[in-house]
């Protein structure tokens, strides 16, 4: 009986010893396999190597990681399939500010779960960015590219921004929702309708082409982005004869559009003749603003040079809209503005210093005009006080005074 107990105790002790040894051995092996976690920050399924000098992508992180930052690591290349073979469960990838020049169609192969990639600030060469670099990312929802790429590309016909637009070929019928191409060009860029034809069946909700030196825009490109909710075309340098009615028509076809930013643009196009931007017969009919529209920002954009342009008859928009904020401060477009009607939900209006002749009825708070206004700044403009309805200016205690 005693011998039986001794045997059981011995077996139990042996089992515990084996478990302990296995824990020590496997633990040591695990640490040996992950020395990179000593120089990078490993926290669960997240690895942050930002600012760590690396010659190659480390191969010894846990294979189940879902977030990886390799920003500012001095990497000069991404080998074919490497990320997908090592870390196939990645959902977020940051490779900003390295020295990567080439992106092939298999660079991101195997990253079937990747949803987000931030890849700006590298030395991409226009002739080495494959049009189908994103084609093997079946779950990608957001792509961010910021930076000019290799500035030595100026002698290459297909400049870096054109190469990025070509990558839309690999996003046909994709899951992409957000595209940010900011400051990707030092050379003039012409935006064409056909640039976005490959996205017409993708659910793109957000598009930023901020500061990419846009000089010409075919606004019909918006027809390929019917799911668009936000568009940012700020900080560009338009040199085109803008067909305003066509531009408005294309914008207002976007039934889900919430925010539009066209601020800080400078136009160098000079027209020869004075003209009305909206003829009277058009100004009398409400413009079909998307019912989802919430905010409009055209601040500090200069879209008029040379002869004067007018909106003498004002304009109307459909009452069924959600516009809450309009910022056109410093916006140079017209020298005369008539009554504005239909912006019945606008609470904030900034229209100071637009260099425009206005009337007491221009920004009236009467029913059907700006009846919900809380903040209105129309300072530093020219108010024509010949009309009798002067009291319409005093529609809110928060309205800023204007120069007369």
Fold blueprint:
Layout: H1 2-33, E1 41-43, E2 46-48, E3 67-69, H2 82-86, E4 92-94, E5 116-118, E6 142-146, H3 160-166, E7 178-182, E8 189-191, E9 206-208, E10 214-217, E11 230-232, H4 244-252, E12 259-261, E13 275-276, H5 280-283, E14 295-297, E15 309-311, E16 315-316, E17 325-327, E18 336-337, E19 340-341, E20 348-350, E21 357-358, E22 375-377, E23 382-383
Parallel strand pairs: 2-3, 3-4, 4-5, 5-6, 6-7, 7-9, 8-10, 9-11, 11-12, 12-14, 13-15, 14-17, 15-18, 16-19, 17-20, 20-22, 21-23
Antiparallel strand pairs: 1-2
Pfam families: LRR_8
Signal peptide: 1-29
Organism: Owenia fusiformis (Polychaete worm)
* CATH architectural type of one domain: Alpha-Beta Horseshoe
Oligomer status: single chain
Distance between the termini: 111 Å
Task: Give the number of helices.
Answer: 5
The string of secondary-structure elements, in order, is HEEEHEEEHEEEEEHEEHEEEEEEEEEE
Radius of gyration: 29 Å
CATH class of one domain: Alpha Beta
* Uncertain residue segments: 19-32, 153-158, 396-404
Fraction of residues in β-strands: 15-25%
Helix content: 10-25%
Structural class computed from helices and strand pairing: alpha/beta
Query: Quick check: average pLDDT?
Result: 85
| Total DSSP E strands | 23
According to CATH, the homologous superfamily of one domain is Ribonuclease Inhibitor
User: Main β-sheet: number of strands, strand sense, barrel status?
Assistant: 14 strands, mixed
Lateral strand order in the biggest sheet: 1-2-3-4-5-6-7-9-11-12-14-17-20-22
CATH topology term of one domain: Leucine-rich repeat, LRR (right-handed beta-alpha superhelix)
- Inertia-based shape: elongated
GO cellular component, one term: plasma membrane
Organism: Owenia fusiformis
InterPro entries: Leu-rich_rpt, LRR_dom_sf, LRR_TM_domain-containing, LRRNT
Protein name: LRRNT domain-containing protein
């Amino acid at each position: 009986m005693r011998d039986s107990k001794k045997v059981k105790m011995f077996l139990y002790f042996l089992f515990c010893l084996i478990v302990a040894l296995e824990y020590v051995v496997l633990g040591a092996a695990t640490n040996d396999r992950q020395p990179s976690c000593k120089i990078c920050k490993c926290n669960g399924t997240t690895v942050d190597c930002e600012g760590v000098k690396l010659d190659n992508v480390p191969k010894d992180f846990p294979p189940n990681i879902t977030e990886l930052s390799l920003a500012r690591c001095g990497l000069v290349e991404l080998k074919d399939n490497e990320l997908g073979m090592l870390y196939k469960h990645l959902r977020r990838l940051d490779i900003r500010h390295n020295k990567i020049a080439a992106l092939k169609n298999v660079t991101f192969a195997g990253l079937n779960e990747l949803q987000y990639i931030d890849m700006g600030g590298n030395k991409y060469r226009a002739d080495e960015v494959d049009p189908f670099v994103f084609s093997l990312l079946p779950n990608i929802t957001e792509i961010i590219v910021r930076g000019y790429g290799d500035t030595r590309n100026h002698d290459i016909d297909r400049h870096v921004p054109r190469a990025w637009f070509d990558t839309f070929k690999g996003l046909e019928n994709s899951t992409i929702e957000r595209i940010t191409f900011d400051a990707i060009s030092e050379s003039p860029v012409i935006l064409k309708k056909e640039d976005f034809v490959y996205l017409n069946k993708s659910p793109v909700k957000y598009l930023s082409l901020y500061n990419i030196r846009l000089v010409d825009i075919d606004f019909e490109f918006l027809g390929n982005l019917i799911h668009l909710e936000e568009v940012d075309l700020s900080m560009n340098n338009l040199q085109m004869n803008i067909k305003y009615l066509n531009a408005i028509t294309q914008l207002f076809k976007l039934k889900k559009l919430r925010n539009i930013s066209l601020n800080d643009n400078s136009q160098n196009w000079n027209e020869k003749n004075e003209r009305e931007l909206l003829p009277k017969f058009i100004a009398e009919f409400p413009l079909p603003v998307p019912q989802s529209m919430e905010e409009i920002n055209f601040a500090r954009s200069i879209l008029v040079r040379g002869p004067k342009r007018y909106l003498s008859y004002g304009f109307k928009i459909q009452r069924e809209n959600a516009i809450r904020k309009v910022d056109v401060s410093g916006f140079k477009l017209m020298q005369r503005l008539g009554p504005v009607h239909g912006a019945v939900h606008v609470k904030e209006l900034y229209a100071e210093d637009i260099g425009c002749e206005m009337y007491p009825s221009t920004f009236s708070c009467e029913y059907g005009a700006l009846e919900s206004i809380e903040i209105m700044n129309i300072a530093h403009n020219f108010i024509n006080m010949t009309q009798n309805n002067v009291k319409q200016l005093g529609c809110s205690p928060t309205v800023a005074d204007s120069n007369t």
